[in-house]
Amino acid sequence: MIRVVLPQGLRTLANVSREVQVEIQGEVTQRSVLDALETAHPALKGTMRDHQTQLRRPFIRFFACEQDLSHDLPDDPLPDEVVSGREPYLVVGAIAGGLLPPVRSETS
Amino acid sequence: MAGVRVLVGTRKGAFILTSDEGRQKWDVQGPLFAGWELYHLKGSPVNPERIYASQSMGWFGQTMQRSDDGGKTWDTVGNEFIYDGVPGTHQWYDGTDHPWEFTRVWHLEPSLSDPDTVYAGVEDAALFKSTDGGMTWSELSGLRTHATADGWMPGAGGLCLHSIVIDPTNHDRMYVAISAAGTFRTEDGGKTWRPSNTGLASEHIPDPDADVGHCVHRIAMHPSRPQTLYMQKHWDIMRSDDGANSWYEVSGNVPSDFGFPIQVHSHEPETIYVVPITSDMEHYPPEGKLRVYRSRTGGNEWEPLTNGLPQEHCYVNVLRDAMSADELESCGIYFGTTGGDVYVSPDGGDHWHAIVNNLPAVMSVEVQTLP
Lengths: 108, 371
Hints:
The structure holds two protein chains of two kinds.
Chain A: E1 2-5, H1 8-14, E2 19-22, H2 30-40, E3 60-64, E4 67-68, H3 80-84, E5 89-93, H4 102-105
Parallel strand pairs in A: 1-5
Antiparallel strand pairs in A: 1-2, 3-4, 3-5
Chain B: E1 3-10, E2 13-20, E3 27-32, E4 37-43, E5 51-57, E6 61-67, E7 75-77, E8 89-91, E9 97-99, E10 104-110, E11 118-123, E12 126-130, E13 138-139, E14 160-166, E15 174-179, E16 182-186, E17 194-195, E18 216-221, E19 229-233, E20 237-240, E21 248-249, E22 262-264, E23 272-274, E24 292-295, E25 303-305, E26 323-325, E27 333-336, E28 342-345, E29 353-356, E30 362-370
Antiparallel strand pairs in B: 1-2, 1-30, 2-3, 4-5, 5-6, 6-7, 8-9, 10-11, 11-12, 12-13, 14-15, 15-16, 16-17, 18-19, 19-20, 20-21, 22-23, 23-24, 24-25, 26-27, 27-28, 28-29
């Protein structure tokens, strides 16, 4: 089982607790973990990766084992600690707060 | 016993306010979807238990919610908004070309005849339609691919399609408004569109009476008079009596003709409401006095409504989707502020009281009249 820790906003959206577990058949990569996560919780589709491009949304980061994996290739294998379940795979909302550039954050 | 259900979208969640027809005692539920921006919630006029909600957040983008029990429980529905074809570009703030990119749903307009059909006005400006209760969305791309669209530019809030008005006598005729492109009309259910801005004059564009480029903030219609439309523009309050073929100014004696919402009384098609805001730079009421202005003559002659509203040190805004009217015999008028207060007047504007204070900034207010 792969352990995945979700940020607060996605926990409320998917109605799950802080940590969820997904089972992966085959190689454990960021893509396979996120695919399994979205299959188990369809409400999360499009919230971490763009629907069409499957690229990471700008204000989402992926961490594990004290490393930032956000810029790794999606099909790179995840660390053994994540594969074995000793360490979680972290989906994180960037500390920037998810705000769009100021010129677009007005509501006028 | 008749009553009302007020759907309030805020910067950090949704709230549902309910009352009987007296509208004096209120039950406040929420926050729903805590932490998320709720740009708009609106119920189906065919089945009021069916409510659609636009939920978004900068980190996670757009999600959509649907309730089939009047807001008690919600299901996440489809959030895939894909522009037709190769989207191309529109004009950016600095005048350069900028690719169309979907950001969020600003406004939801359920069909007048089918609870599974709903329209979504989005940023960057486009109109989407769902016929399966929000599970899937298709763009009505005749609007975004209009010959003028590559010159549309964003207002301060983005290039957003924020108003959708359906003619109750002909559901294929719809009006939409885009900031800052203007008003457009379709006669064929959204396949083709024409700009409907004749009579508007806007100083922030090179040609003040150009066909497009106007920063329309809101349009409204009374269902008994579908040829009459009211508009709050960036500056100017406007009126059309010919289905938006032409507009004329009815700002009259308001202290400022800048503002965002405009609302029509449910039973009096010539009674309309606006909330004057000081200016495009000063998004708060003139003199720090929160005043709704009412015209009983379809514009030009306006009276301030102040009873129960703060008349000093008030520096909030009322956003374009944050005003609504119920359909009870004594028509109730509602609005919410960026200061998180939601006000109601159960008597058409004569007396106001706060339903709730200190919510997150209110982005939308819609009221459902329940049997």
